[in-house]
TrEMBL record:
Any GO molecular function: oxidoreductase activity
Keywords annotated in UniProt: Oxidoreductase
Source domain of life: Bacteria
Pfam families: Ldh_2 (PF02615)
PANTHER family: MALATE DEHYDROGENASE, OXIDOREDUCTASE-RELATED
Name of this chain's protein: Oxidoreductase
Family: Belongs to the LDH2/MDH2 oxidoreductase family.
Length: 343
């Protein structure tokens, strides 16, 4: 029986990367995917931490991701930077497009990265933080597979469609939020099922469209958008901008392509980067004005989004990432045979 351990983020990233390399991923895909998954574990975002490794490997084993694909930058010099992931994990496509996106946003004030044909299993905040680290504001969004009913509906049509925003701060961690447009991220519903915990009321409906708090029934039925018609409209907007507009799969098409919700979804992603200075055009200091707003929020006793993550990150840097005996056992099992359970 494995023992619980504490491990540095760097050592864990190396370990996870080795598992992906042994599973046949290219070095770029293995490294970027491992870095994103370990960032989730490090920041106490368990639903996007090492629990995701097995889902990635299942997707490789099912042939629904191209492990050796090299994402291709399609650059026509315009502010719309395209990366054809060619079936690779989205993390590799983002890494290929990031330097050009940043350069174009500085040059034009606004630039967009369109990622096509990727497998996307990630939280969006690692990408948002890579852009805010360059002094740019950022937005990212993508569809998922159809597991969410529109407000007033009863059957899956929309994805959990994540939406994220970031604002760079000079002497502090960036302002970042990143959320599913469903009441709960699907990974969290899955964690509730694994841990035998009921869902909060209003999270989901069963396959007959009746409200349920049973995570297994919710996974078989449909989740609900957050904020009723408002979340439903934002989620629909994401289907339009990050699927229909960029010539990629909607959540319904992504589910048809996969035929299951147990594999990482295949679709596109839209990422926007803005230069606050270029938009402000001398009409005041946007960064100073942002600080005034953040201080007013904090002054009311509220917290800024992502602060919980940044605190977990500091703890992980100082003390390491704690892994349970079950998590260590999973890593050891996958190190012995990445496709052991799936092949
Ligand atoms: P949460 O509801 O947990 O958090 C949403 C955001 O709100 C976070 O930035 C969080 O910061 C912040 N927040 C939470 N509580 C407060 C508070 N009291 N005051 C201020 N801010 C707060 O996110 P979700 O469960 O909706 O989504 C989790 C992740 O799942 C996201 O990273 C998303 O990208 C990912 N996802 C990915 C999908 C995909 O297909 N790739 C699909 C759906 C979701 P903090 O983290 O610090 O608590």
């Amino acid at each position: 029986m494995a023992q619980p351990i504490t491990v540095s983020p760097e050592a864990l990233a190396e370990r996870v990367s080795r598992i992906f390399l042994a599973a046949g991923l290219s070095p770029l895909q293995a490294e970027t995917l491992a870095a994103t998954i370990v960032a989730g574990e490090r920041d106490a975002c368990k639903s996007h931490g090492i629990y995701r490794i097995e889902g990635c490997l299942r997707t490789v084993a099912a042939g629904k991701v191209q492990p050796q694909a090299e994402p291709e930058l399609q650059d026509d010099g315009s502010p719309v930077v395209r990366v054809d992931a060619k079936g690779a994990f989205s993390t590799a496509a983002f890494a290929v497009g990031l330097p050009v996106l940043v350069a174009r946003a500085r040059q034009h004030g606004l630039a967009a990265m369109v990622v096509n044909s990727c497998t996307h299993i990630s939280a969006l905040w690692p990408e948002i933080e890579a852009i805010t680290a360059e002094g740019l504001a950022a937005m990212a969004m993508c569809p998922s597979y159809a597991t969410v009913a529109p407000a007033g509906g009863s059957a899956p049509l929309l994805g959990t469609n994540p939406f994220a925003f970031g604002w760079p701060r000079k002497d502090a961690s960036p302002y970042v939020f990143d959320f599913a447009t469903s009441v709960m991220a699907r990974g969290d519903v899955e964690l509730h099922r694994i841990e035998g915990r009921p869902l909060p009321e209003g999270t989901a409906v069963d396959r007959d469209g009746n409200p349920t708090t049973d995570p297994a029934e919710a996974l078989a039925g449909a989740m609900l958008p957050f904020g009723g018609h408002k979340g439903s409209a934002i989620s629909t907007m994401i289907e339009l901008l990050a699927a229909a507009m960029i010539g990629d799969l909607t959540s319904t098409e992504a589910l048809d392509y996969l035929g299951t919700t147990t594999l990482g979804p295949h679709h596109g992603e839209l990422i926007l980067a803005f230069s606050p200075e270029r938009f402000a055009a001398g009409r005041g200091d946007p960064f100073a004005r942002a600080e005034t707003l953040f201080q007013a929020i904090l002054g009311q006793g509220a917290r800024l989004p992502s602060q919980r993550r940044f605190e977990a990150r500091k703890r992980a840097a100082a003390e390491g990432i704690p892994l349970t005996a079950e998590e260590v056992e999973m890593l050891e099992r996958l190190e012995r045979a990445p496709f052991g359970a799936q092949a």
